[in-house]
Amino acid sequence: MSLKPCQLLVFHAGSVITWDSATPAQADALIVDQGKVVAVGSEAEMRAAWSPASELNAEGGLVVPGFVDAHVHPVFAVGRAEEFDWRAEGVEYLEIAKRGGGILSSVRHVREAEEEDLLMKVRSHFRRMRRHGTTACEGKSGYGLSTEAELKSLRVMQQAADAEGMPLSATFLGAHMFPLEHRENPERYLDILCEEMLPAVKEQGIARAADIFIEEGAFNATQARRYCERAKELGFALRIHADQFHEIGGTQLAVEMEAECVDHLEALSDSGLEALALSGKTFAGLLPTVPHFLRQKIDAPGKKLIQAGVPYFVATDFNPGSSYTPSLPEAAHFARIRLNLSAEQALFGVTLGAARSLGVEAQKGHLGPGADADLLVLDLPDLYHFGYAFGENPVVKVVVAGEVQQ
Ligand code: NIG
Ligand code: FE
Fold first, then answer.
1. pLDDT score of 93
2. In this model, does residue 75 exceed pLDDT 90?
3. How far apart are CA 137 and CA 19, in angstroms?
4. 322 CB near ligand 1 (under 6 Å)
């Protein structure tokens, strides 16, 4: 029998996690052609059928789908390390925001930044994510808070993603906070959001989803309802920040609006959990590095949500104020420690769970035949070590569309 030519053979994996039930448990090799996974099985079987143009020795490591980060704020110009000391002195996150720090200090820097400089910063954020195994992501604007600065943020984010080869699902987050100039008249900002910003973003076709921060000191449920209705009417998918500190109806609204996801959920009540379980559609976005970073004592009820059958993902929430990490392996570690997820649940949350929440599960988040050949070799002996260590990067090889990255 003649051998079929193909792009790449990955071999000598400790195991291959594909999330495809047809993959044999003892699979240690995988074949890629034209950027897609075409077969998974034993090395002997693969070599008996295929003639690869190149080979990658996984050296006994764990082969997994490339990570998908479904909640990222990559468009910021500088970090906010000074707030770390303020918090150590007991000043809380919402108090820092009230004083004009927090999100609004990032807004000042993004508004001031030259487009070219901002582009370099965002590209560096995507590179940091990629080094930690993220091969596709969602990305939010939200540090512009004016039509001009939000459009600039979305434009720069897409340019950065294209330049770095990071498949991006863009989300407009003009409703992150009320900007200083509209503090006295928040309804005016809501008008601008609904009648100027959302339509402009739609017209330019530079975001597929819209997001809002529903929280005391940000947007209340009534304001959020108006924003979400308008966004839906314009054809945006909804991804929502809610129940981070206070339960003010955000989860219930997200379910009612059939949002793709509602993220944070540290303050989720039993009735909120029930609403999510009943919906079965709206994903719970678990961001377990955030309460760690903010020194919060409460966590999202991750385990309970999963037990109740709520679809979920685990994400970094990479941003300068509440989660300054680009690393999904780190987020997985915190998901295991603080949310009591198993290794398998944590890995699922940063791969297929995340891809499903973004509607890209045909191509991303798994390694079944036909999937994009975005995969990682992790220096881990088995699945149970995923999220076990922290403070070190387990990613030793990143493969994108069958091309091994340097
Ligand atoms: O997801 N909670 C609201 N927004 C971001 C934090 C933004 C910031 O502090 O800069 C979050 O945690
Ligand atoms: Fe966020």
1. 86
2. yes
3. 19
4. yes
- Which residues, in sequence order, are CB contacts of 95 under 8 Å at separation 6+? none
Question: E-assigned strands of 155-303?
Answer: 168-175, 209-214, 237-242, 261-264, 283-286
Nearest residue (by CA) to ligand 1, atom 8, is 321
pLDDT at 318 over 90: yes
Joined tokens for residue 68 = 């998908």
8 A C-beta contact, residue 210 and residue 140: no
The string of pLDDT tens digits covering residues 210-233 is: 999 999 999 999 999 999 999 999
Is the minimum distance from the CB of 244 to ligand 1 under 6 angstroms? yes
Q: Quote the ligand 1 centre to 103 CA distance (angstroms).
A: 7
Structure tokens, 80: 């906010």
Q: Are 8 and 52 in contact (CB under 8 A)?
A: yes
- How far does Cα 133 stand from its chain's mean position? 12
Cβ of 319 less than 6 Å from ligand 1:
yes
Is this structure's pTM higher than 0.90? yes
